[in-house]
Amino acid sequence: IIDSITCDAEGCNESSPSVRCTKCCMVYYCSNDCKRRHQSLHMHECIDLEYFKSMTMGHDPNGNSGLCNAWPSSLSHLRGSAMAAQLSGKKLSVKALILHAEVIHQADENWEMAIELYKKILMEGYDEIESDHTQVANPSEWRQVWMGMSRCFYELGVYDKAVNAAEAAIEMNRHFPQCHKYMALSYKAMGHHDLAIQTMKQAVLYEAPWSKETVDANKDLLVNAM
Fold it and tell me: Which of 12-16, 77-81, 131-135 shows the lowest per-residue confidence on average (mean pLDDT)?
C-alpha cells in the first residue's frame, strides 16, 4: 500500500517510499540518502510525534477527535458539562463550543447546528480571555474542529465540503486516528473509488501505527472502499 504515499524529504516526491524513520515510524523516505538529508528538519517533528504517541497510547483514540465517538460511560457526563456551559450565560471558550458541538448536536445528529458552532469557532478563533489577553485556539482544537466539520458535512451529503474539511485536519495532523475517514467515505459516495482507496491506504500507514485498534479499523475501511 505504500504506492499511495510519497517521500517526506523536502523537494522529493518519489512514490512508494520504503524507508521509514526508525524512531517515530510515521515518516517515510524513498532512500537512506533522503532520510539523512531530511534528518535535521525532521528532528523536532520526530520529538513531537513521540510525544503525541505517548499521549495517545492507552487512551480512547477518538476522545479528542471532533467526531463525538466518546465512550458511552462518559457521554452523559460530557453532555451535562456542555449543557451547564450553555446555560451559564457566559461567553463560551473554544473548548466549551467544541464540547457543545460534539456531545449535544453530533450525538443528537443535529449536523447543521454542529456546523454552525464550528463556523463560530473558525470565525472568532479565541479561547478563554485571561489577564486581558486573548488566547487563540490551539492546533489540536483547530484539528478537532475540522474533523468534526468533515463528519457533519458527510452526514448531510455535502461531500465536497467534507473532503475540504478533512484536508485541513490532515494538514494539521495526518497521524490522528480517523482524520482520513470521512474524506474516504465522501470520495466513495461521489463515485471516486480510486481516491477513496488511496485515502484509506494513507490512513493505514499514517494514523497511529502503534495502535492495533486504529490500524485494523482503517484496514476494514480500506477493504470496504475496494
Answer: 131-135
Residue 38: which residues within 8 A CB-CB, separation 6 or more? Answer: 8, 9, 10, 27, 29
d(CA 18, CA 28): 7
pLDDT digits (tens, 9 = 90+) for 93-102: 677 777 777 7
User: What is the 3-class SS of the chain, one letter each residue?
Assistant: CHHHCECCCCCCCCECCCEECCCCCCCEECCHHHHHHHHHHHHHHHHHHHHHHHHHCCCCCCCCCCCCCCCHHHHHHHHHHHHHHHHCCCCCCHHHHHHHHHHHHHCCCCHHHHHHHHHHHHHHCEEEEECCEEEECCHHHHHHHHHHHHHHHHHCCCHHHHHHHHHHHHHHCCCCCCCCHHHHHHHHHCCCHHHHHHHHHHHHHHCCCCCHHHHHHHHHHHHHHC
Residues 107-120: tens digit of each pLDDT: 778 899 889 888 88
Mean pLDDT over 47-68 rounds to 60
pLDDT of 61 strictly over 50: no
